[in-house]
Amino acid sequence: MALSLLEIQQFLATQGSEQTALFTQANEIRAQNVGDAVHLRGLLEISSYCAQNCFYCGLRREHIQLARYRIPPEEIIRLAKEAIKQGFKTIVLQSGEDAWFSAEKVAHIISEIKKSKVAVTLSLGERPREDFQCWKEAGADRYLLRLETSSPDLYAQLHPGQSWANRVRCLEDLRELGYEVGSGFIIGLPGQSLELLAQDLKWLVDFEVDMAGLGPFIAHPQTPLGSHPSGGLDLALKAIATTRLLLPDINLPATTALDALSPDGRWQALQAGANVLMPNLTPLAYQQRYNIYPDHHEACSNLSFKAEHAFKERLAALGRYISTDLGGHKKASL
Ligand code: 5AD
Ligand code: SF4
After folding, report:
1. For residue 297, is pLDDT > 80?
2. Hey, whose CA ends up nearest to atom 2 of ligand 2?
3. Which of 224, 258, 259, 310 lies at 20 to 30 Å from 300 by C-alpha?
């Protein structure tokens, strides 16, 4: 539905019974437009090296106490194949900005995974257009690159040495190259007013994203923003719900960061407009070193597939089920 900036802001400010009504409405719109399926994306965090220095993130390059890792390409391929055997229809390869993973290395991994009939999503940060093109030709289907904030000024304050314009350039390149494009924002980022958050959501509409990742800010003590308060769970859920009203048929994950604020965070999101979950399939020994924010590892592991049965039952209790198709966005289905 079309909403003005002021209306978006009003939804974001709802409380009590109005907030509950917003979640209920978003849940209904989700059911009508994308149905009751929950799409699972198997996440592999392939490298914790990062050349960037974002003020909020535990993987920033100046966090020198962090022991870094890279999963060797052949191990990534093996892990992806195991995930496919378990039934995952989408494999997400995520990392910091790590030039060691050259275009060719990543293309090799993609083409090996694409020998199975699954979708490959990349979330490897900003790269030259040629890399995006090479990976598309190797078979990649989707790309996740959050804009983090739609304000070029706030972006400049939090991302030393990076440019908002280049990030938008990447997103435009990805779309032109035929990827399904996911973007999104951190909710409750220090310096982000409700007005700005409304503009963020409007940006998703204007850009016509296929997917939107919206998660709360979680303060990481070893970063420059470590002493700021974390974003609120309710605000993040309201942002997800309002995005469902704005973009009824996109893919909206219940983001992992929600679980860092409440053990039920992602379940609440699934009842407030979200239709995607991204279980973390990174082997624990690596996962422990991929701490974008504290509690990350703990929050993720509770969706381990040892708990699969209980998980499915819990979904069924919500009238939901695990999707068995690729779960692309309608406009750009595979
Ligand atoms: N809190 C919440 N989200 C964060 N990200 C990075 N650091 C934090 C944090 N402290 C998000 C960014 C990035 C994604 C991989 O993780 O939005 O795009
Ligand atoms: Fe690197 Fe991404 Fe973290 Fe920024 S948010 S420091 S680019 S991993």
Report:
1. no
2. 96
3. 224
